[in-house]
Amino acid sequence: MEKVFPVPARVLVVAAHPDDLDFGCAGTVALWTKAGSQVSYAICTSGDKGSDDPFMDRDLLARTRQEEQMEAARVIGVSDVHFLGFEDGSLENDVDLRRTLVRCIRRLRPDVILCHDPGNRSFENPYVSHRDHRAVSEAVFDAVYPASGNPHFFPELLAEGLAPHKVREIFFFGTQSPNFWQDITHVMDLKIKAILSHRSQIADPEQMEKFLRLRFEEAGKRVGVPYAEPFRRLTFPW
Questions:
Q1: Domain at 10-235: CATH architecture
Q2: Which residues pair with 116 in a beta bridge?
Q3: Alpha helices, H only, the chain
Q4: What angle do CA 22, 28, 177 make, to 5 degrees?
């Protein structure tokens, strides 16, 4: 049960919707940006269905959620945020999504990727089991292996000047099978501030902060620190 990790030079965080990654890994990302990591976000959808209000203007909601995500990213020290433009609620682990992700990986050339966990198949938690989370998590894995590192996958990307690239590690967030806990005690307030930037999704900020402190305090107990983020860490053999 590790709680330290060498700071990666380049990081790509992939999430299905705005706010997903802030709940999952904003503390760890804050630590890495403070230590000099170059971090990029790739948000697959704009979260335009993230409301139960039948009268909500979806275009307005999409713009709002993108602005909230940009604000949250600034809190964490990230300025490179990409919205990939797929439809909320309709993500599929198909060729289009994989090609888009491989393009991101080859262009940004990250050492480490953080994303949803494709191993979440118990359907005990409706949030982590969201179909978009499942689709993105599998697409990211398939993009990392073997597609991004193999020139025979998406050869059209070679014509764009995007050479194959092999990712060293993946950190799956929101996992139900963690094997790595990152101490985020010194940046917990930043994580909370980033999450609270998503105002369209939070009815009661005070209750949300209480929930977050309790949740990540419980994770911290696994490694004897006040607050921690749990991950399933996968290291590739190359």
A1: 3-Layer(aba) Sandwich (3.40)
A2: 173
A3: 20-34, 58-76, 95-108, 131-144, 156-159, 188-196, 205-221
A4: 85
Kindly report the pTM of this predicted structure: 0.95
* Structure-block tokens of residue 97: 């999504």
Are 30 and 76 in contact by the 8 Å Cβ rule? The answer is yes
Domain ranges of the chain: 10-235
Q: What are phi and psi of 212, to 5 degrees?
A: -65, -45
Task: Look up residue 33 and give its two tokens.
Answer: 């940006």
Cis peptide before 146 (omega within 30 of 0): yes
- Mean pLDDT within 126-149: 93
Neighbours of 202 (CB within 10 A): 16
Please, which pLDDT band fits residue 3 given cuts at 50, 70 and 90?
very low
H or E element in which residue 83 lies: strand 80-86
b/e sequence 135-167, b meaning 16+ C-beta within 10 Å: bbbbbbbbbbbebbbeeebbeebeeeebebbeb
Residue showing tokens 């994770």? 219
Mean pLDDT of 97-112: 98
Q: At what angle do helices 188-196 and 58-76 cross, to 10 degrees?
A: 160
